[in-house]
Write a structure and sequence with these properties.
The structure is a single chain. By secondary structure, this protein is mainly alpha-helical. The chain has a domain at 3-68 and 98-177. The chain has helices at residues 3-18, 22-34, 36-58, 61-67, 69-92, 102-107, 112-124, 127-141, 148-182, 186-206.
Length: 209
């Protein structure tokens, strides 16, 4: 794979990843509520979920998901339900969770494995990503077939870029959290973020392929 071809692939992945969606919203939320340091764990969950989706697509199983309507709907509705559940949890969270000073960060802490699991489930619950990867990878694997080297390069690039984009949103959330606290609008922000998650879940459930 030439450098120019890799650069096109990396640019495509970065643009797709940076576009706001459920995963980037979760990264922003974790940055606001727990800080960018804690969001590292959820970033890893996002990467693992993305790699599973990409691996399924390269293996050709993404075609099965696309063709099998019941399986597609099961994944879609499960992902939508999880987004709505997360939205309810954020909506009901106390406003103190938005404070970023040292004392309050301890109160707003969440176990690393739960942060990881939240991001993993939100990422994995979007079947459209598998459909997208199934359409994307054949364009970059070439006509000479799938090789271990090509798959390694493509998946590693995707993992790095997915993590970088996640942390961009997480750092952004951490930076604006102080502003939320100073103006005492923490509870309002909880409602906005929670409502956005709920809306995203409903939108995913109602969306067509």
């Amino acid at each position: 794979m030439s450098f120019e071809f890799w650069l096109i692939y990396a640019t495509t992945i970065f643009i797709v990843s940076i576009v706001p969606g459920p995963s980037t919203l979760l990264a922003l939320t974790h940055g606001i509520r727990y800080g960018a340091g804690k969001a590292l764990f959820s970033g890893l969950g996002n990467v693992v979920g993305t790699m599973l989706q990409a691996g399924v697509s390269i293996a050709g199983l993404g075609v099965l998901l696309t063709a099998c309507e019941p399986l597609f709907l099961v994944v879609k509705y499960a992902g939508a339900a999880y987004l709505v559940w997360l939205g309810i949890m954020v909506w009901r969270a106390p406003a103190e969770n938005l404070d970023i000073d040292t004392n309050v960060v301890v109160k707003a802490s969440k176990p690393a494995h739960k942060l990881f699991f939240d991001a993993f489930m939100v990422t994995l619950g979007n079947p459209k990503a598998i459909v997208f990867f199934s359409a994307l990878f054949p364009q970059f694997l070439g006509t000479d077939g799938v090789t271990v080297l090509k798959c390694t390069v493509l998946l590693t690039t995707m993992a790095v870029l997915a993590f970088v984009v996640w942390m961009i949103y997480a750092f952004g959330g951490e930076k604006i959290a102080g502003t939320f606290r100073r103006f005492s609008i923490g509870r309002f922000v909880n409602k906005v973020l929670g409502g956005t998650f709920i809306g995203a879940g409903i939108g995913l459930a109602m969306s067509r392929r």
